[in-house]
Amino acid sequence: xxxxxxxxxxxxxxxxxxxxxxxxxxxxxxxxxxxxxxxxxxxxxxxxxxxxxxxxxxxxxxxxxxxxxxxxxxxxxxxxxxxxxxxxxxxxxxxxxxxxxxxxxxxxxxxxxxxxxxxxxxxxxxxxxxxxxxxxxxxxxxxxxxxxxxxxxxxxxxxxxxxxxxxxxxxxxxxxxxxxxxxxxxxxxxxxxxxxxxxxxxxxxxxxxxxxxxxxxxxxxxxxxxxxxxxxxxxxxxxxxxxxxxxxxxxxxxxxxxxxxxxxxxxxxxxxxxxxxxxxxxxxxxxxxxxxxxxxxxxxxxxxxxxxxxxxxxxxxxxxxxxxxxxxxxxxxxxxxxxxxxxxxxxxxxxxxxxxxxxxxxxxxxxxxxxxxxxxxxxxxxxxxxxxxxxxxxxxxxxxxxxxxxxxxxxxxxxxxxxxxxxxxxxxxxxxxxxxxxxxxxxxxxxxxxxxxxxxxxxxxxxxxxxxxxxxxxxxxxxxxxxxxxxxxxxxxxxxxxxxxxxxxxxxxxxxxxxxxxxxxxxxxxxxxxxxxxxxxxxxxx
Length: 542
Ligand SMILES: Cc1ncc(C[n+]2csc(CCOP(=O)(O)OP(=O)(O)O)c2C)c(N)n1
Ligand SMILES: [Mg+2]
What we know:
Layout: E1 3-5, H1 6-16, E2 21-24, H2 31-36, E3 44-47, H3 51-65, E4 69-73, H4 77-91, E5 96-102, H5 121-125, E6 131-134, H6 141-153, E7 160-165, H7 166-170, E8 172-174, H8 190-202, E9 206-210, H9 212-216, H10 220-230, E10 234-236, E11 251-254, H11 262-265, E12 271-275, H12 280-284, E13 295-300, E14 314-317, H13 320-334, H14 343-360, H15 362-374, E15 380-383, H16 387-395, E16 404-405, H17 416-426, E17 432-437, H18 438-444, H19 448-454, E18 459-464, H20 469-478, H21 493-500, E19 503-506, H22 512-521, E20 526-531
Parallel strand pairs: 2-3, 2-4, 4-5, 5-7, 6-7, 9-10, 9-12, 10-11, 12-13, 13-14, 15-16, 15-17, 17-18, 18-20, 19-20
Antiparallel strand pairs: 1-8
This protein binds thiamine diphosphate and magnesium ion.
Thiamine diphosphate binds next to helix 18 and helix 20.
């Protein structure tokens, strides 16, 4: 067994798990980890400018790669700065490991004012992690990191945290390291699969909802095959976008706040199969909500999500990929002959939705179509918490899984730009576009320095309405136009980008189609500022 410092044990453990990047801001309690990275070639250190970005970058990386992203922060303020991002990763079921320093072991629990002390740090991370642990000895470090990765690779992937006191990281011990593990999925319940197949085959109008879980489980091919075997249309949540190509004849695109092509189809459906979604936002408004006597077959990696918002006739807990494969086999044994939905019918639903977009949000629809037109199928769009981001849930046609990134129900203002940096780290050879508002961009624009330093050449489109637009339109719609505290003064975003050493551009919405291809070709990070009026969000429509 090799004798190593705590810092070396951390680095070696991460390398054994196949981790490529460690994203961090240094500080006295974690310097032993930094020291272990001196001359280290197998694990790349990315130093960011705010701890929120450690986890945002790790999250962006994880969403594209499907394997853990890792951040490292000092205790107390470092962990607290990272929390909104950890909450976002939790909401998005993203495998992110936060490694945190701790105060010296002798000071733990004393509330004595040790440097960066917070009593008790584990209590802060518990609500936004699946699993967390404090490690007190060097010998325990490899096991804890291995377990954190195992937790994120089994069942529902959600963030984990491991924290290590300053003195433990500095001291030496004998460490046994673990090889990465392939954890087999638990055996499926064949009887439930047969019942689900029976229901779907007998349905007059079967319908499929795909959520973020369909993406996380990499089950797109099986989902598409099942849909085709059944002739069932597939609509997605915002998080599920790309789980079926949105130009597929059975795709009804994304649904959001009761809107989407799905709202013309769903009322006709008699049996719905939900894959990897708790149906929360779909159940919130009548358009896309299931109603009795519609039957639900609910498949989810997290059994506690099944039937949470609508009673499930058949529960299918487990891994979507293997369950969809088995379900598809069972359906094909039974042979579906009838055409359940005609292509003319599905075309009409899509047409209705396009007409609705054209009527309610012509400017946003044009902008989103322009962005789509300029991007290859494998390009990745990070949809920020901004007007164009909300409308993109309904109007952007994602064609591949893991090419559309949201902050899910956390709706974390400020997440998109730092998350997009992590996305680009995971996909350096693919175009990455971040769509962000003037309000959201200034949360994390300091990471332009990170983008320039590490050559993370993404394109960021800042839609500038000089306002916290959706909160301003909330006042316009719901508070009799009494605008207070929602208008903003901003820098010139193109100049700001240039000051950081990035490229700055400006374009009116009509010229975005001209400017975007040039930005995508640039060998630098690019910020394009696009002026817009404050526009209404889908959830503010009467
Ligand atoms: C962390 C956080 N704080 C506050 C909010 C509330 N909020 C939602 S949208 C928004 C305004 C966003 O402004 P901007 O980024 O300029 O986008 P716009 O709506 O103008 O397109 C605010 C303040 C939030 N979602 N998250
Ligand atoms: Mg704005």
